[in-house]
Structures are given as C-alpha cells and as structure tokens.
Amino acid sequence: MNIDRDLIKTAFHTYISGFDASNLQVYNKIRHTWHVAENCQFIAQALSVDENLAFLIGVLHDIGRFEQIRVVHGYDDSKGIDHGDYGANLLLEQHLLREFIADTTEDELIRKAVKYHNKYELPDGLSQMERVYCQIIRDADKIDNFRGFHENDFFSFHERTPEQVQDSIISDEIVTCFVQHRTIPFSKIKTAADFFLIPYALYFGLVYDPSRGLALKQGNYEKMLEFVFEKPENREKFDLIKREIREHM
User: What are the residue ranges of CATH 1.10.3210.10 in the chain?
Assistant: First the structure.
C-alpha cells in the first residue's frame, strides 16, 4: 500500500484540533495513539507484515475516543458511545479515512481492525490477513495500557478511588480468571478491586511472542505488579494472581 506517514500525522492533528488538548483525558489519548502506533510497527516488523499499514491502524484505532470524551466525559463504552464502533463508522461512513490515505484497497481491513480492537474477542469470519492486523492492534493497545496504568492516575480516569479499591474485596471469580490465564469479562466485575485488576489480566490476551517480549522490555507491566493491597484477604489473592501471571510469563 502507498502510505504517507506525513499525511497521516497531519490528518490526525487536524482532526484532534477540534478537541480540547488541555483536557487530560484528551491529552493522554493523543499520547496513547502514538505509543500504540509505534507498538504496531514493532510487532508488524517482527511478524514480517506491512508495518506502514499497522502504523496507520495504530493511529486510527482510538479515533472514536475523542468524541466519546466530549459526550460522556470519560472512557466508558457502555454509556452510549462504543469508541471502536464509533471510530469505524467515522472512518468509513463519514469518510474520514480519505483524509489519512487515498488508497482504498484495505478499507475493510482497517474498518474491522478499528471496530474490533476494543471487543472482548474477535468475531468469526475474518480473513487470515484481517485477523493478523486485528491481533496486532489489540496486542499493541494492551501493551500501552500497561504504560498508561503505570504512569497515569488510574483511579481518577476510571472513576474508582484508591479508597474504593482498598476497601473492597477481590471476587473469587476474578481470581479464577487469573488461574485460568484469561482476560476478565466485564460481566464478572463486582467490586472496585475487581475493576482495578482488569489491566493485569490483559497480559493473558497478548497473542504474539514479540508482543509479550515488547511488554516485558518496556517494563511497565512489572511495575504494575508492585502494587500493594491493604486487606490481608486481598494480599493473599493478589499473591496468587501474581504467581499465575509469572507462570504465564
């Protein structure tokens, strides 16, 4: 594909100029976008697939977040705007994708990668190439979520306070997810402590070996494991969770 990275960067900055970058949620999503795009490029290179297409998908994957922040003042996809669905519609139905790339060859692949990057699992029926790029963006996104979790104030962005997390109990169902080495469905979340652990389980969702290697090289995930729960019951459960994580590593 003929992909012009200068055009991509210009188009992205033009689009986000309509949003308030002094809003920390907007600012952090701008930073996240570029980190994810770089992660996509790294993983694509390691897999010997088109790194420019992967980079473009990385830039576009959260394009729906900005309107979501404006409307619902947060990142909750259950409050009326699913940012993956909205972003895919924005790119194709509202023709924003043409601002980033003139070539229409991979429009459907790009749409699916954006639409499904935030879903619990990928749907059946994807072509082999579609699945590869969908998995690249999902891996790249998870890896930068580790950075965001470590660097940013998780509690204020996710509407859970430190006190709520420390005062609640980790549900047994959440521990079971870690024992089974799988990511946490939102349907299993019962407490603030459960919600807090969602990013930890994302490591189990990484598909590619280069993705796992990149996550460990960046070091943010290891720093997440330094968190200390105050309640003895939670400390015991978190110790078990960390053992399962390290076994998976």
Answer: 1-149
